[in-house]
Amino acid sequence: MKNTVNERMYALGSKRSEIRELFEYGKKRIAEVGAENVFDFSIGNPSVPAPDCVKEALTELVMNGDPVALHGYTSAQGDAAVRKACADYINKTHGMNCTADDFYMTCGAAASLTVSLNALSTENAEVIVLAPYFPEYKVFITQAGMKCVEVKCSEEDFQVDFAAFEAALNENTKAVIINSPNNPSGAVFSEETIKKLAAILEKAEEKYGKDIFIIADEPYRELVYDAETVVPFIPNFYANTLVCYSFSKSLSLPGERIGYILVPPAVKAHNEVYFAVCGAGRALGFVCAPALFQKIVPMCIGKTADLSVYKKNRDILCSALTEYGYRVVKPDGAFYLFVKALEDDARAFCEKAKAHDLLIVASDSFGFPGYVRISYCVSTQMIERSLPAFEALAKEYK
Q1: CB–CB of 205/211 below 8 Å?
Q2: Contact yes or no for 193/159 (Cβ under 8 A)
Q3: CA neighbours within 13 Å on the CB side: how many for 275?
Q4: Ordered alpha helix ranges (H), 239-303
Q5: Which pLDDT score is estimated for 197?
């Protein structure tokens, strides 16, 4: 293999992520014992259909749109009318003053993150991630030529541990990734948390004489289940914020890969950052996000799939697992439970769960050992069928 391929790329490609490995194992078990006997909580794949507006928009576009333009190239940064629709929605919803030229359409959240990180990458730069965090952050950060610095959140409520966060800041800090609602904990950072975080970063910018960015990874922004839960829009609290958004979760379109990067007008070096985003998109080959699904955005922006299903699933699982003796911090958003494993070794715990055909993900790769992630974006019927297995697993530890 030496001098034939990139060894780091080979390592990434020859071994799937733990989540994908478990997902593939689940498909194998389904073939062996039947789908009704396998309880696959491994992957964050929305289980409710896209809202009707998606079907209506696609039908309208396909039946009545220009058949050439419909599938043709858009501008490199995205169709101007689509970007304007995104700006209008953000301005109305969050009180901003964005324009179409603050948006860059992307192939989903992963492209939003990788483009943003490459746009900001400089020599010796470091990016702070707040654990637990989505494991691919480390892959994206490293590939962009920067160092990934983990800061663990409070185990009590998964809010920011500010003492640990301040200790991690230094002259090389370039950005911090904020994911709220969070994958895997479901935690929503409160307005108080965001304000305090912003104050710390503003102080650090002044101390080190440099711009430090928040990269707000927001595919779950709309996925909250209680009326009192508010997801702060971070650009309203901190100027140097890039918003990475995807319609994958809100509209149940994970396979269509459509999202955007917002470089808000308040970003201090706005034009430089926006053009760097455009350049990173070009260098990574991400120009012109999927045209058809760009064009559905103006017809569907602000809509969501039926979130009541996820709320019901959350409440059933939280109640049952707590009754069985698991430690569960009830999530405010997203569609994941982050549950304390019943032994120190979370991977060993997950292997024991497999004996009950419970497929849950160990937390080690999320930077927070000792827990498991349970994705409850599955059918309610599967959750109800799985409860005896969760109870039997818990009894093994009593």
Answers
A1: yes
A2: yes
A3: 4
A4: 270-284, 291-300
A5: 98
Q: Are 337 and 328 in contact (CB under 8 A)?
A: yes
Domain count, the chain: 2
Both 190 and 90 in a single domain? yes
Q: For 55-107, how does the pLDDT look when each residue is reduced to its tens digit (9 = 90+)?
A: 999 999 999 999 999 999 999 999 999 999 999 999 999 999 999 999 999 99
Place of tokens 């650090």: 204
**Structure pTM?**
0.95
Q: What is the mean pLDDT of each run of 10 residues along the chain (398 residues)?
A: 84 81 84 90 92 97 93 96 98 98 97 98 98 97 98 95 98 98 96 97 98 98 92 98 97 96 98 98 96 97 96 97 96 96 96 95 95 96 97 94
Domain boundary among 245, 266, 300: 300
Residue partners of 44: CB distance under 8 A and separation at least 6? 183, 249, 254, 334, 335, 336, 375, 377
